[in-house]
Write a structure and sequence with these properties.
This protein has 18 helices and two strands. By secondary structure, it is mainly alpha-helical. It has two domains: 235 residues, Rhodopsin 7-helix transmembrane proteins (Rhopdopsin 7-helix transmembrane proteins); 125 residues, Arc Repressor Mutant, subunit A (Orthogonal Bundle). Strand 1 and strand 2 form a beta hairpin. Helix 2 runs antiparallel to helix 4, helix 4 packs parallel to helix 7 and helix 8 packs antiparallel against helix 9.
Length: 374
């Protein structure tokens, strides 16, 4: 009874988050995809809730449609992550291809519906159901969600790898929370597969208990998305996520065609250093590669090339190196003696205490407090 109530709560929470997303002044493609995923999850949880009752209200064909929802919820999550982390324009016409497994599954189920029943949230094959068809449907349900979850993880890892080449901060835009959602979902799929294959067969767990637990876990995921989404201000507010990311591999491939020879690169690097010394753009905590490129009248690709080749570092390290030097100067300046170390860090362009301490130690070899000690 408790787990069933938790499943219903997850449904309500999913619908509430959709309403919250609808309040944004301008919905992006990623917002719409997140609403789609939350909507699918809410319907899936409602299906579990209905099937966990002694007398389900939904007819058999709707129950079968509900059982196969993971075949579209996992692609929807992947498309959300792809849209959120990609700098390319999302094309809705490509969504259709990701619906094919769901359509294939339900097309086969429709043809063999007389041999399939839903009980306790799980399909049961009656006598006369071809073994090969039953095996294919089972494999489809096992492989597709796992495939899209792995694909989501790959997209996130590539996104995180590109961030230091484009931003001087990563803490609020690294999507680490989403990465751990995906990893835990992958573990859930593996665990669920093993439980179905061995736990239920060995009588360690019943199907009814199994999907009560699964529904409860999925409800927790919706709470998790809501909690970290509200903390990650770009998800449920109008603040933008990281955009205009340049791929490191693409940028390097384009360096030959960038229009910069070695002499031009040297001159641009000298111009960059003068700009850094005179105008101190690194004091802007939101500084990005695209912003700095506009300030010195060049392209992000050319600026990335110059920083990588002339300073042997990426944009993140280059900018934060200036911030660390600025902190060192102020820590040694008696005029800043009444400032706290953290206040100095914020004044020099760092966004948070944790990033300040970590970056300072990585570059200077000491924590700010250790550096300040005589």
């Amino acid at each position: 009874m408790l787990l069933r109530s938790l499943v219903l709560t997850g449904t309500i929470q999913g619908l509430f988050l959709i309403l919250l997303l609808k309040t944004k002044k301008k919905s992006s493609h990623s917002d719409k995809l997140l609403m789609l995923w939350l909507g699918i999850m809410a319907v899936q949880l409602l299906f579990y809730y209905d099937n966990l009752s002694s007398h389900p209200l939904a007819p058999d064909y709707l129950q079968l449609l509900g059982f196969s929802l993971p075949l579209i919820s996992s692609p929807a999550l992947y498309l959300y992550i792809y849209s959120l982390s990609s700098d390319s324009t999302f094309q809705w016409r490509r969504v259709g291809i990701h619906l094919l497994p769901y359509m294939l599954f339900n097309g086969i189920v429709f043809c063999f519906s007389a041999h399939i029943t839903i009980s306790n949230g799980f399909p049961h094959f009656r006598e006369g159901m071809p073994a090969a068809i039953a095996y294919f449907l089972t494999i489809l349900l096992a492989i597709i969600p796992g495939y899209y979850t792995v694909l989501s993880l790959v997209v996130l890892l590539k996104y995180q790898k590109r961030l230091p080449d484009n931003y001087s901060y990563t803490e609020e835009i690294n999507l680490n929370w989403l990465k751990w959602v995906v990893i835990s979902l992958l573990l859930l799929f593996v665990t669920l597969f093993l439980i179905i294959k061995y736990g239920v067969k060995e009588g360690l767990l019943t199907y009814q208990n199994l999907f009560a637990v699964v529904g409860s876990i999925l409800s927790c995921y919706i709470f998790f998305i809501g909690y970290f989404g509200l903390r990650q201000t770009n998800v449920f507010t109008d603040m933008p996520v990281a955009t205009h990311l340049t791929s490191e591999l693409t940028a390097k491939a384009n360096y030959k065609n960038s229009g910069l020879d070695d002499g031009m690169a040297d001159r641009l690097f000298q111009k960059l250093k003068r700009h850094m010394e005179e105008h101190k753009p690194f004091l802007d905590e939101d500084l990005s590669l695209a912003t700095l490129a506009r300030q010195i009248d060049t392209t992000p690709n050319q600026l990335s090339q110059v920083i990588n080749q002339k300073s042997s570092s990426n944009f993140f390290t280059f900018i934060n190196g200036y911030r660390v030097e600025a902190v060192k100067e102020k820590l040694s300046d008696p005029a800043y003696g009444h400032y706290s170390i953290l206040a100095i860090g914020f004044e020099c362009g760092f966004r948070s205490k944790s990033s300040f301490n970590k970056i300072f130690k990585d570059i200077a070899g000491k924590t700010p407090s250790q550096y300040q000690k005589p």
